[in-house]
Protein backbone atom coordinates (compact mmCIF):
# COMPACT_ATOMS: atom_id res chain seq x y z
CA UNK A 1 0.00 0.00 0.00
CA UNK A 2 1.56 3.28 -1.12
CA UNK A 3 2.05 5.97 1.49
CA UNK A 4 2.24 8.63 -1.20
CA UNK A 5 -1.07 10.41 -1.81
CA UNK A 6 0.16 13.26 -4.00
CA UNK A 7 3.30 15.29 -4.67
CA UNK A 8 1.60 18.20 -2.88
CA UNK A 9 1.18 16.08 0.25
CA UNK A 10 4.80 14.94 -0.10
CA UNK A 11 5.91 18.58 -0.20
CA UNK A 12 4.20 19.30 3.12
CA UNK A 13 5.74 16.23 4.71
CA UNK A 14 9.16 17.14 3.27
CA UNK A 15 8.84 20.61 4.79
CA UNK A 16 8.44 19.05 8.24
CA UNK A 17 11.29 16.53 7.83
CA UNK A 18 13.93 18.84 6.35
CA UNK A 19 15.92 21.64 7.97
CA UNK A 20 14.53 25.02 6.93
CA UNK A 21 17.60 26.11 4.92
CA UNK A 22 17.52 22.83 2.95
CA UNK A 23 13.77 22.94 2.23
CA UNK A 24 13.99 26.57 1.13
CA UNK A 25 16.91 25.82 -1.19
CA UNK A 26 14.92 23.07 -2.93
CA UNK A 27 11.49 24.70 -2.86
CA UNK A 28 12.41 28.31 -3.58
CA UNK A 29 12.73 30.36 -6.73
CA UNK A 30 14.19 33.62 -7.99
CA UNK A 31 13.10 37.08 -6.86
CA UNK A 32 9.50 37.43 -5.70
CA UNK A 33 8.80 33.83 -6.82
CA UNK A 34 5.97 34.96 -9.11
CA UNK A 35 7.75 33.11 -11.94
CA UNK A 36 7.76 29.97 -9.80
CA UNK A 37 4.02 30.40 -9.18
CA UNK A 38 3.38 31.10 -12.88
CA UNK A 39 4.71 27.63 -13.83
CA UNK A 40 2.17 26.00 -11.50
CA UNK A 41 -0.67 28.36 -12.41
CA UNK A 42 -0.31 27.52 -16.10
CA UNK A 43 -0.83 23.81 -15.35
CA UNK A 44 -3.66 24.45 -12.89
CA UNK A 45 -5.49 26.65 -15.40
CA UNK A 46 -5.07 24.30 -18.38
CA UNK A 47 -8.22 22.23 -18.90
CA UNK A 48 -8.39 18.63 -20.15
CA UNK A 49 -11.36 17.58 -22.25
CA UNK A 50 -13.04 14.50 -20.80
CA UNK A 51 -14.14 11.98 -23.44
CA UNK A 52 -16.77 9.29 -22.99
CA UNK A 53 -17.80 6.08 -24.77
CA UNK A 54 -14.29 5.20 -25.85
CA UNK A 55 -13.33 1.68 -24.83
CA UNK A 56 -10.42 2.15 -22.45
CA UNK A 57 -10.74 -1.23 -20.77
CA UNK A 58 -7.53 -3.04 -19.88
CA UNK A 59 -4.00 -1.72 -20.01
CA UNK A 60 -3.31 1.67 -21.56
CA UNK A 61 0.09 2.20 -23.14
CA UNK A 62 2.43 4.96 -21.97
CA UNK A 63 5.44 3.52 -23.84
CA UNK A 64 7.08 5.95 -26.20
CA UNK A 65 10.17 6.27 -28.40
CA UNK A 66 12.35 9.27 -27.72
CA UNK A 67 15.83 10.05 -29.05
CA UNK A 68 16.17 6.59 -30.53
CA UNK A 69 15.20 4.64 -27.40
CA UNK A 70 12.05 3.07 -26.05
CA UNK A 71 10.90 4.40 -22.64
CA UNK A 72 8.20 3.01 -20.35
CA UNK A 73 6.65 6.48 -19.99
CA UNK A 74 7.25 10.00 -21.33
CA UNK A 75 8.66 11.45 -18.09
CA UNK A 76 12.03 11.50 -16.37
CA UNK A 77 14.01 12.94 -13.48
CA UNK A 78 15.36 16.46 -14.18
CA UNK A 79 18.98 17.27 -13.31
CA UNK A 80 19.18 18.63 -9.76
CA UNK A 81 22.32 19.98 -8.14
CA UNK A 82 22.90 19.50 -4.43
CA UNK A 83 19.93 17.11 -4.30
CA UNK A 84 21.55 15.51 -1.25
CA UNK A 85 20.24 18.48 0.70
CA UNK A 86 16.70 17.20 0.12
CA UNK A 87 17.55 13.78 1.52
CA UNK A 88 20.96 12.17 2.00
CA UNK A 89 21.61 9.46 -0.63
CA UNK A 90 18.82 10.73 -2.90
CA UNK A 91 20.83 10.81 -6.17
CA UNK A 92 21.39 7.07 -6.09
CA UNK A 93 17.85 6.31 -4.88
CA UNK A 94 16.35 8.23 -7.81
CA UNK A 95 18.82 6.89 -10.39
CA UNK A 96 18.04 3.28 -9.40
CA UNK A 97 14.28 3.89 -9.25
CA UNK A 98 14.26 5.58 -12.68
CA UNK A 99 16.23 2.68 -14.17
CA UNK A 100 13.74 0.27 -12.60
CA UNK A 101 10.81 2.27 -13.96
CA UNK A 102 12.40 2.41 -17.45
CA UNK A 103 12.56 6.22 -17.66
CA UNK A 104 15.46 8.72 -17.94
CA UNK A 105 17.46 9.93 -14.97
CA UNK A 106 19.58 13.08 -15.44
CA UNK A 107 22.75 13.26 -13.38
CA UNK A 108 23.89 16.87 -12.97
CA UNK A 109 27.27 18.59 -12.93
CA UNK A 110 26.73 19.66 -9.27
CA UNK A 111 25.12 16.34 -8.25
CA UNK A 112 25.98 15.01 -4.80
CA UNK A 113 27.13 11.64 -6.18
CA UNK A 114 29.77 11.04 -8.86
CA UNK A 115 28.53 10.88 -12.45
CA UNK A 116 30.40 7.56 -12.87
CA UNK A 117 28.58 6.02 -9.86
CA UNK A 118 25.24 7.34 -11.05
CA UNK A 119 25.77 5.74 -14.45
CA UNK A 120 26.29 2.44 -12.63
CA UNK A 121 22.92 2.99 -10.93
CA UNK A 122 21.15 3.85 -14.20
CA UNK A 123 23.17 2.15 -16.99
CA UNK A 124 20.31 2.20 -19.53
CA UNK A 125 18.54 5.39 -18.57
CA UNK A 126 21.22 7.85 -17.43
CA UNK A 127 21.66 11.22 -19.12
CA UNK A 128 24.36 13.70 -18.04
CA UNK A 129 23.77 17.44 -17.62
CA UNK A 130 26.66 19.81 -18.27
CA UNK A 131 27.17 23.33 -16.96
CA UNK A 132 29.51 25.33 -19.14
CA UNK A 133 31.62 26.99 -16.50
CA UNK A 134 34.46 29.43 -16.80
CA UNK A 135 37.13 26.72 -17.20
CA UNK A 136 37.13 25.12 -20.66
CA UNK A 137 39.48 22.45 -19.35
CA UNK A 138 36.88 21.31 -16.81
CA UNK A 139 34.11 21.43 -19.44
CA UNK A 140 36.16 19.23 -21.78
CA UNK A 141 37.04 16.84 -18.98
CA UNK A 142 33.40 16.50 -17.87
CA UNK A 143 32.36 15.72 -21.47
CA UNK A 144 35.09 13.10 -21.72
CA UNK A 145 34.22 11.59 -18.34
CA UNK A 146 30.54 11.35 -19.34
CA UNK A 147 31.52 9.55 -22.57
CA UNK A 148 33.88 7.13 -20.83
CA UNK A 149 31.31 6.42 -18.09
CA UNK A 150 28.92 5.30 -20.86
CA UNK A 151 26.35 8.10 -21.05
CA UNK A 152 24.76 8.37 -24.51
CA UNK A 153 22.96 11.68 -23.94
CA UNK A 154 24.36 15.05 -22.88
CA UNK A 155 22.17 17.94 -21.70
CA UNK A 156 23.73 21.39 -21.97
CA UNK A 157 22.03 23.86 -19.64
CA UNK A 158 21.78 27.31 -21.18
CA UNK A 159 19.81 29.34 -18.62
CA UNK A 160 22.43 30.03 -15.96
CA UNK A 161 24.56 32.90 -17.33
CA UNK A 162 24.67 34.14 -13.71
CA UNK A 163 23.54 32.47 -10.48
CA UNK A 164 19.85 33.17 -9.77
CA UNK A 165 19.03 35.58 -6.96
CA UNK A 166 17.06 33.47 -4.49
CA UNK A 167 15.81 35.52 -1.58
CA UNK A 168 15.05 32.58 0.72
CA UNK A 169 18.69 31.44 0.52
CA UNK A 170 19.89 34.96 1.25
CA UNK A 171 17.56 35.30 4.25
CA UNK A 172 18.70 31.91 5.57
CA UNK A 173 22.32 32.91 4.90
CA UNK A 174 22.54 29.62 3.04
CA UNK A 175 26.06 29.13 1.73
CA UNK A 176 28.60 26.37 1.52
CA UNK A 177 30.23 25.32 3.71
CA UNK A 178 27.22 25.38 6.04
CA UNK A 179 27.94 27.73 8.92
CA UNK A 180 27.77 26.14 12.37
CA UNK A 181 25.55 28.64 14.17
CA UNK A 182 23.20 28.00 17.13
CA UNK A 183 20.29 28.09 14.64
CA UNK A 184 21.99 25.50 12.40
CA UNK A 185 22.53 23.16 15.36
CA UNK A 186 18.88 23.64 16.36
CA UNK A 187 17.78 22.78 12.79
CA UNK A 188 19.83 19.55 12.85
CA UNK A 189 18.58 18.57 16.31
CA UNK A 190 14.95 19.16 15.34
CA UNK A 191 15.20 17.09 12.11
CA UNK A 192 16.91 13.94 13.46
CA UNK A 193 16.14 11.58 10.53
CA UNK A 194 17.68 14.01 8.03
CA UNK A 195 20.71 14.50 10.32
CA UNK A 196 21.16 10.73 10.81
CA UNK A 197 21.03 10.34 7.02
CA UNK A 198 23.87 12.84 6.73
CA UNK A 199 25.86 10.80 9.23
CA UNK A 200 25.27 7.67 7.13
CA UNK A 201 25.75 9.13 3.64
CA UNK A 202 28.05 12.07 4.42
CA UNK A 203 27.32 15.80 4.08
CA UNK A 204 26.13 16.92 0.62
CA UNK A 205 29.17 17.64 -1.57
CA UNK A 206 30.02 18.53 -5.18
CA UNK A 207 31.09 14.99 -5.97
CA UNK A 208 31.92 15.63 -9.66
CA UNK A 209 34.08 18.67 -9.04
CA UNK A 210 36.30 17.58 -6.17
CA UNK A 211 39.00 16.30 -8.51
CA UNK A 212 39.40 19.79 -10.01
CA UNK A 213 40.14 21.38 -6.63
CA UNK A 214 43.56 21.45 -5.04
CA UNK A 215 44.25 18.28 -3.01
CA UNK A 216 42.76 18.69 0.46
CA UNK A 217 40.74 21.72 -0.69
CA UNK A 218 38.20 23.04 1.78
CA UNK A 219 34.48 23.01 1.01
CA UNK A 220 34.79 26.77 0.55
CA UNK A 221 37.10 26.46 -2.41
CA UNK A 222 34.87 23.71 -3.84
CA UNK A 223 31.89 26.02 -3.46
CA UNK A 224 33.74 28.77 -5.34
CA UNK A 225 34.64 26.19 -7.99
CA UNK A 226 30.94 25.38 -8.27
CA UNK A 227 30.07 29.09 -8.50
CA UNK A 228 32.37 29.24 -11.53
CA UNK A 229 30.34 26.43 -13.15
CA UNK A 230 27.71 29.00 -14.03
CA UNK A 231 29.24 31.38 -16.50
CA UNK A 232 27.94 33.72 -19.16
CA UNK A 233 30.29 32.51 -21.87
CA UNK A 234 28.06 29.85 -23.44
CA UNK A 235 27.16 31.02 -26.94
CA UNK A 236 26.35 29.38 -30.29
CA UNK A 237 30.06 28.94 -31.14
CA UNK A 238 30.73 27.15 -27.89
CA UNK A 239 27.65 25.00 -28.41
CA UNK A 240 28.99 24.04 -31.87
CA UNK A 241 32.29 23.12 -30.19
CA UNK A 242 30.47 20.88 -27.68
CA UNK A 243 28.48 19.34 -30.55
CA UNK A 244 31.71 18.46 -32.34
CA UNK A 245 33.14 16.83 -29.19
CA UNK A 246 30.07 14.88 -28.10
CA UNK A 247 29.29 11.80 -30.19
CA UNK A 248 25.91 11.02 -28.62
CA UNK A 249 22.54 12.77 -28.42
CA UNK A 250 22.71 16.44 -27.45
CA UNK A 251 19.87 18.20 -25.61
CA UNK A 252 19.77 21.97 -25.05
CA UNK A 253 18.00 22.89 -21.79
CA UNK A 254 16.59 26.25 -20.75
CA UNK A 255 15.08 27.56 -23.98
CA UNK A 256 12.02 29.85 -23.86
CA UNK A 257 12.16 31.87 -27.07
CA UNK A 258 10.96 30.53 -30.45
CA UNK A 259 13.95 32.19 -32.21
CA UNK A 260 16.44 30.39 -29.95
CA UNK A 261 14.56 27.11 -30.46
CA UNK A 262 14.57 27.49 -34.24
CA UNK A 263 18.30 28.26 -34.28
CA UNK A 264 19.02 25.22 -32.09
CA UNK A 265 17.40 22.94 -34.66
CA UNK A 266 19.97 24.03 -37.25
CA UNK A 267 22.94 23.64 -34.86
CA UNK A 268 22.80 19.86 -34.61
CA UNK A 269 20.88 19.80 -31.32
CA UNK A 270 18.76 16.62 -31.03
CA UNK A 271 16.16 17.96 -28.57
CA UNK A 272 15.26 21.06 -26.56
CA UNK A 273 14.04 21.35 -22.98
CA UNK A 274 11.60 24.26 -22.75
CA UNK A 275 12.53 25.27 -19.22
CA UNK A 276 12.96 28.25 -16.90
CA UNK A 277 15.01 26.21 -14.41
CA UNK A 278 11.96 25.68 -12.23
CA UNK A 279 11.53 29.44 -11.72
CA UNK A 280 14.97 29.68 -10.12
CA UNK A 281 16.68 32.07 -12.54
CA UNK A 282 14.56 34.89 -14.04
CA UNK A 283 11.48 35.79 -12.00
CA UNK A 284 9.86 37.44 -15.01
CA UNK A 285 10.26 34.47 -17.35
CA UNK A 286 7.10 33.00 -18.90
CA UNK A 287 5.47 29.83 -17.62
CA UNK A 288 7.01 26.94 -19.53
CA UNK A 289 3.60 25.53 -20.52
CA UNK A 290 2.77 28.91 -22.12
CA UNK A 291 6.15 29.06 -23.90
CA UNK A 292 5.71 25.55 -25.30
CA UNK A 293 3.06 26.26 -27.98
CA UNK A 294 4.95 29.03 -29.85
CA UNK A 295 8.13 26.92 -29.68
CA UNK A 296 6.32 23.90 -31.12
CA UNK A 297 5.06 26.13 -33.95
CA UNK A 298 8.61 27.39 -34.58
CA UNK A 299 10.34 23.99 -34.70
CA UNK A 300 7.58 22.03 -36.47
CA UNK A 301 5.66 18.91 -35.39
CA UNK A 302 8.55 16.42 -35.50
CA UNK A 303 11.35 18.10 -33.57
CA UNK A 304 11.78 16.43 -30.12
CA UNK A 305 10.60 18.80 -27.38
CA UNK A 306 10.77 18.30 -23.63
CA UNK A 307 9.13 20.64 -21.11
CA UNK A 308 9.70 21.00 -17.37
CA UNK A 309 8.64 23.33 -14.57
CA UNK A 310 5.67 22.97 -12.23
CA UNK A 311 4.66 19.41 -13.19
CA UNK A 312 3.20 17.80 -10.07
CA UNK A 313 0.87 15.01 -11.25
CA UNK A 314 0.07 12.55 -14.01
CA UNK A 315 -2.63 14.93 -15.23
CA UNK A 316 0.04 17.62 -15.61
CA UNK A 317 2.13 15.20 -17.70
CA UNK A 318 -0.85 14.65 -20.00
CA UNK A 319 -1.49 18.40 -20.22
CA UNK A 320 2.14 18.97 -21.28
CA UNK A 321 1.90 16.31 -24.01
CA UNK A 322 -1.39 17.72 -25.26
CA UNK A 323 0.20 21.19 -25.41
CA UNK A 324 2.92 19.94 -27.77
CA UNK A 325 5.65 18.25 -25.69
CA UNK A 326 7.01 14.79 -26.52
CA UNK A 327 8.47 14.28 -23.07
CA UNK A 328 8.59 15.95 -19.64
CA UNK A 329 11.11 16.23 -16.83
CA UNK A 330 10.26 16.77 -13.18
CA UNK A 331 12.58 18.10 -10.49
CA UNK A 332 11.01 19.01 -7.17
CA UNK A 333 8.21 16.38 -7.27
CA UNK A 334 10.79 13.59 -6.91
CA UNK A 335 12.78 15.51 -4.28
CA UNK A 336 9.66 15.98 -2.13
CA UNK A 337 8.78 12.27 -2.41
CA UNK A 338 12.15 11.05 -1.17
CA UNK A 339 12.35 13.73 1.52
CA UNK A 340 8.87 12.66 2.69
CA UNK A 341 9.33 8.89 2.61
CA UNK A 342 13.07 8.26 2.46
CA UNK A 343 14.46 5.75 -0.05
CA UNK A 344 11.01 4.17 -0.70
CA UNK A 345 9.76 7.53 -1.90
CA UNK A 346 11.75 7.16 -5.13
CA UNK A 347 9.96 4.03 -6.40
CA UNK A 348 6.62 5.16 -4.96
CA UNK A 349 6.85 8.41 -6.93
CA UNK A 350 7.05 6.51 -10.22
CA UNK A 351 4.25 4.12 -9.27
CA UNK A 352 1.95 6.98 -8.31
CA UNK A 353 2.79 9.01 -11.40
CA UNK A 354 2.07 6.06 -13.66
CA UNK A 355 -1.31 5.41 -12.02
CA UNK A 356 -2.23 9.10 -12.25
CA UNK A 357 -1.17 9.29 -15.90
CA UNK A 358 -3.08 6.21 -17.02
CA UNK A 359 -6.11 7.32 -15.02
CA UNK A 360 -6.04 10.70 -16.80
CA UNK A 361 -5.62 8.92 -20.16
CA UNK A 362 -8.71 6.80 -19.46
CA UNK A 363 -10.77 9.89 -18.58
CA UNK A 364 -9.72 11.61 -21.80
CA UNK A 365 -10.06 8.59 -24.11
CA UNK A 366 -6.34 8.14 -24.81
CA UNK A 367 -5.56 4.41 -25.15
CA UNK A 368 -2.01 4.90 -26.30
CA UNK A 369 0.15 7.89 -25.38
CA UNK A 370 1.71 7.99 -28.86
CA UNK A 371 -1.71 8.82 -30.33
CA UNK A 372 -1.65 12.32 -28.84
CA UNK A 373 -1.17 14.63 -31.80
CA UNK A 374 1.08 17.68 -31.74
C1 LIG B 1 17.17 22.26 -6.12
C2 LIG B 1 17.27 22.35 -7.60
C3 LIG B 1 18.52 22.23 -8.21
C4 LIG B 1 18.62 22.27 -9.61
N1 LIG B 1 19.85 22.07 -10.19
C5 LIG B 1 19.94 22.02 -11.54
C6 LIG B 1 21.17 21.69 -12.17
O1 LIG B 1 22.17 21.41 -11.52
N2 LIG B 1 21.21 21.68 -13.53
C7 LIG B 1 20.10 21.97 -14.30
O2 LIG B 1 20.18 21.96 -15.53
N3 LIG B 1 18.92 22.26 -13.72
C8 LIG B 1 18.80 22.27 -12.37
N4 LIG B 1 17.60 22.52 -11.79
C9 LIG B 1 16.40 22.74 -12.64
C10 LIG B 1 15.72 21.39 -12.95
O3 LIG B 1 16.50 20.61 -13.81
C11 LIG B 1 14.35 21.59 -13.61
O4 LIG B 1 14.50 22.43 -14.73
C12 LIG B 1 13.30 22.16 -12.66
O5 LIG B 1 13.45 21.61 -11.38
C13 LIG B 1 11.90 21.87 -13.17
O6 LIG B 1 10.94 22.44 -12.34
P1 LIG B 1 10.16 21.61 -11.20
O7 LIG B 1 11.13 21.50 -10.05
O8 LIG B 1 9.01 22.49 -10.89
O9 LIG B 1 9.80 20.27 -11.75
C14 LIG B 1 17.46 22.48 -10.39
C15 LIG B 1 16.22 22.59 -9.77
C16 LIG B 1 16.11 22.52 -8.40
C17 LIG B 1 14.75 22.61 -7.77
From TrEMBL:
PANTHER family noted in UniProt: 2-HYDROXYACID OXIDASE 1, S -2-HYDROXY-ACID OXIDASE-RELATED
SUPFAM superfamilies tied to this protein: FMN-linked oxidoreductases
Residues annotated to bind glyoxylate: 131, 166, 277, 280
Pfam family membership, one: FMN_dh
CDD domains, per database record: alpha_hydroxyacid_oxid_FMN
GO terms of biological process kind: aerobic respiration
Name this polypeptide is given: Alpha-hydroxy acid dehydrogenase
Gene3D superfamilies: Aldolase class I
Cofactor: FMN
PROSITE patterns xrefs: FMN_HYDROXY_ACID_DH_1 (PS00557), FMN_HYDROXY_ACID_DH_2 (PS51349)
Residues that coordinate or bind FMN: 79-81, 108, 129, 157, 253, 275, 308-312, 331-332
GO annotation, cellular component aspect: plasma membrane
Catalytic-site annotation from UniProt: 277 (proton acceptor)
Organism: Thalassospira profundimaris
Entry's family note: Belongs to the FMN-dependent alpha-hydroxy acid dehydrogenase family.
Keyword entries, A-Z: Flavoprotein, FMN, Oxidoreductase
Residues annotated as domain FMN hydroxy acid dehydrogenase: 1-374
Top-rank taxon: Bacteria
One of the record's GO molecular function terms: L-lactate dehydrogenase (NAD+) activity
Amino acid sequence: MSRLVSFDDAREKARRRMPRFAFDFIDGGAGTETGLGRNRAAFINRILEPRALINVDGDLSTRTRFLGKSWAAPYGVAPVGLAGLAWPGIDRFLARAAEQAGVPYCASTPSTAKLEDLHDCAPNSGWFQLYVGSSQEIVDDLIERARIAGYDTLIVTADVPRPGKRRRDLRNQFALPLKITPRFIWELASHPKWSLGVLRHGAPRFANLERYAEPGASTTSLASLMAKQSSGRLDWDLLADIRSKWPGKLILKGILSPQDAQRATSEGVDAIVVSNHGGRQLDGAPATLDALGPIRDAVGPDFPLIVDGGIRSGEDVLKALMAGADFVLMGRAFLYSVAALGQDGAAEAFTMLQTELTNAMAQTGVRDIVDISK
